[in-house]
């Protein structure tokens, strides 16, 4: 018999720089098209970064992701 694995503490939230940038722009009310123009990306690429951020943060919407990112200090609301 193997001993029960010890549960690991919750890993800190880690987003890529682009995921964080996209969330920060969402927090400022920008659309995917706006963010794409600002960062030189297609709106679909922006959506992809936001989807990845949502998955990492375990939330369903970009608004929930922004709220959690602000609460945890990942982005600074301006």
UniProtKB/TrEMBL annotation:
Q: Which InterPro entries match?
A: Sig_transdc_resp-reg_C-effctor, Tscrpt_reg_LuxR_C, WH-like_DNA-bd_sf
Its GO biological process terms?
Answer: regulation of DNA-templated transcription
Residues annotated as signal peptide: none
Kindly state which keywords UniProt assigns to this record, in alphabetical order: DNA-binding, Transcription, Transcription regulation
Q: Which residues form the HTH luxR-type domain?
A: 8-73
- Stored PANTHER family: DNA-BINDING TRANSCRIPTIONAL ACTIVATOR DEVR_DOSR (PTHR44688)
Identify this protein by name: LuxR family transcriptional regulator, quorum-sensing system regulator CciR
| Source organism of this protein record | Brevundimonas viscosa
